[in-house]
Design brief:
By secondary structure, the protein is an alpha+beta fold. 25% of the residues lie in helices and 42% in strands. The chain has a seven-stranded mixed sheet with strand order 1-2-3-4-5-7-6. It is globular, with a radius of gyration of 14 Å. The relative contact order is 0.15.
């Protein structure tokens, strides 16, 4: 049975593993250009490890009265193993326990809507383009 561990850091302290995963998934695999932004400095970054290897990540930051989740990614060869759900659970815990918030929001790629629905998010509003890729806003009350 593989060993799963999760680490959380605030800001860019120990950011290298999240950087690698996000660059691999969003830039190299999916073709996004503007992956990194100023929100990285104020975000709680989660990295999930499988047998000590960093394989997934996500971030959360306070945005008014809700937590904005994003940059949720799992390396291709480790998808469909429940790791994304663990990342979401960790980010929810940060929002609730650390940031004292009860609402989550995110911008989901159209192809990931089913995943987010499965972990309790609901689509609000119409589809929009982010770097030419269709996205939707999704929310969840916790």
């Amino acid at each position: 049975m593989p060993k799963i561990t999760v680490k959380v850091n605030l800001g860019k302290e120990n950011f290298e593993e999240a950087f690698f995963i996000r660059k691999t998934v969003f830039m190299d695999e999916q073709g996004f250009r503007d992956e990194f932004d100023d929100f990285d400095e104020i975000s709680y970054h989660t990295v999930i490890y499988l047998d000590g290897r960093p394989v997934g990540c996500g971030r959360a930051y306070k945005d008014g009265d809700f937590a904005h989740l994003g940059r949720i990614a799992v390396l291709k060869e480790y998808r469909k193993q429940g790791l994304g759900s663990i990342i979401i659970e960790t980010l929810e815990s940060i929002a609730r326990d650390t940031l004292s918030l009860t609402r989550l929001e995110l911008s989901a790629q159209q192809r990931a809507i089913e995943f987010y629905e499965a972990v309790g998010f609901v689509q609000v509003g119409e589809s929009f383009l982010d770097e030419g890729y269709p996205h939707v806003k999704m929310v969840k009350e916790i």
